Amino acid sequence: MKLSAAGLLILTLIAGLTAKAAELSGTLKPKFSITDQPLPDSSLRYILQVPLRLMVRHRAGNMNFNAAWILSPSGGNPALSGENDIQVFRLADPETRIFPSSWNGDESFSILQDIDRLNVRLRVSGAALTIGRQAVYWGVAKSVSPTDFIAPFQYGTLDTEYRIGVDAVRAVVPIGIMSELDAGYLFGKDAGFSESGCWLRGRFYLFKTDANLLAACFRENLMVGGSLNRSLGGGTGWVECAFVSTECFSDNPGEDTYWSLSTGYDRSWLNASLYGFLEYHFSSPGTDDPENYPGILEGSAFGSGGIYLLGKHYRSPGANWSVTPLLNFTGQALVNLTDGSAFLSVTSEYSISQNTVINAGLSRGLGSIPNDAAGDAGSEFGTWPAHYSLSAGYYF
């Protein structure tokens, strides 16, 4: 179901009614990016985006109203179409593409929009109730988070400033020092059960350890998982895991249970100017044989469970170096321990002023390319494209 312009009109009206008392802020972040597809289908794609994000916040007693609207013109070969296959927990949306009205696949200019936040937050007897489009996430892993199923960033995403907003009702109840109960319901397309989800999460601080327990149902999958996070030897150690069953609401005998785990350690040196971590990730739906990569993509874990990595065992090192308080560099890698391929990303940020920053980033896969003629299955990250980007963000 589409809202056409109705959703945008409602957002504008609410913002107008509260304009005298509302706090208006936003970001303007022009970004130029180049994507280089690997052989044999080598192609070079460039895109210039100028996204404007407007945010409205209004507080009245124990109620907080939040809204965010994104307007994103783009040009390229082709420009952004606004069409994707990403499953998002949303009841409905306005038309993503404002211009052009139809898409043939090679248009060089487009204007997109998105209502990314639209929620009301109430405080009742110490508890917080949030209704509407909001960001919902958790997890302690640095590379791949097993329990972060709602709107996770795929590994290698360079711009992770804002999580995608989802339609949900969420209640958070504090039950002690650094402890809380968190429950909510996620609304999928047209509120259909097969597209929706719910969760119950408990966070507890026990024996100097931050512990999270999670039970969730999403898109007819049942998840049970959690995480432990604790200071160790001048740094921090963590473990996060999740078990997912696709059998509970399915009549297909081939559906099964899978699990994933991430564990690692991080610490800082040189008065916190240098930070590093090392993490290991395991994914049971993956395979130890690259020859099986095409076949496992038909599994339920990849169709509805949010799994996208093809192997079983991964190592992820990462580091951040603050050269000065205004300039820092971040590097990270995800290495497939089975086929030896890797995906590398490097980003840098320089603050020109209090409200203006410049970002540069690159990411690319390293590994062999499949060769059908030679019967070579190739490697996982050898097929991942290279991305190069330069952006300037202004915050007001």
What is the structure about, briefly put?
The chain is mainly beta. The chain is built from three helices and 21 strands. The protein has a 21-stranded antiparallel beta sheet that branches.
Write the layout of secondary structure elements.
Layout: H1 6-17, E1 23-28, E2 31-37, E3 43-49, E4 52-60, E5 63-76, E6 97-99, E7 109-124, E8 127-134, E9 166-176, E10 179-186, E11 197-206, E12 209-218, E13 221-232, E14 235-245, E15 257-269, E16 274-283, H2 293-296, H3 300-303, E17 313-324, E18 327-336, E19 342-351, E20 356-366, E21 386-395
Antiparallel strand pairs: 1-4, 1-21, 2-3, 2-21, 3-5, 4-5, 5-7, 6-7, 7-8, 8-9, 9-10, 10-11, 11-12, 12-13, 13-14, 14-15, 15-16, 16-17, 17-18, 18-19, 19-20, 20-21
In the CATH hierarchy, the third-tier topology is known as Porin
Helical proportion, percent range: under 10%
What is the helix/strand order? HEEEEEEEEEEEEEEEEHHEEEEE
Instruction: Calculate Rg over CA atoms.
Output: 22 Å
Number of domains: 1
Strand percent estimate: over 45%
Name of the level-1 CATH class: Mainly Beta
**Given the structure, what is the number of helices?**
3
Describe the oligomeric state of these chains in a short phrase. Answer: single chain
Poorly predicted spans:
1-6
Specify the CATH homologous superfamily.
Porin
Average the pLDDT over all residues and give the rounded result: 90
CATH architecture: Beta Barrel
First-to-last CA distance: 34 Å
Biggest sheet architecture: 21 strands, antiparallel
| Secondary-structure content class | mainly beta
The total count of strands amounts to 21
The geometry reads as globular
